[in-house]
Amino acid sequence: MRKTFALDNYLRLVAMLKSGELQADPLVVLCELMGHADIRATLKYVPRTDVSKQMLQEMGADWGIDFDEV
């Protein structure tokens, strides 16, 4: 049941990002999506600020993900 709830929230969040209904900082979205395999695909819909770009680079270095390629 918990996985279904998480998946429903994830799909709703992705739909909101794609439609432009949600204008969120990438770090907020990343925190919401931790544990989902589709983080990279989702981040491409999120507007980036200078601060969040720097923080994403630092987090990506820790996790081995290059968010600039997203």
What is the arithmetic mean of pLDDT?
66
- Any low-confidence stretches, pLDDT <50, length ≥5? none
Radius of gyration: 12 Å
Total domain units? 1
Helix count from the secondary structure assignment: 4
* Approximate shape: globular
Total strand count, please? 0
Biggest β-sheet strands, sense, barrel? none
- The SSE string, one letter per element, is HHHH
| Strand percent estimate | under 5%
Helix percent band: 55-70%
Structural class: mainly alpha
Describe the protein.
The chain has four helices and no strands. With 70 residues, it is mostly helical. The chain has one domain (2-69). The radius of gyration is 12 Å and the shape is globular. It starts with a helix and ends in a 7-residue tail after the last helix.
Index terms:
single chain, 4 helices, globular, 70 residues, mainly alpha
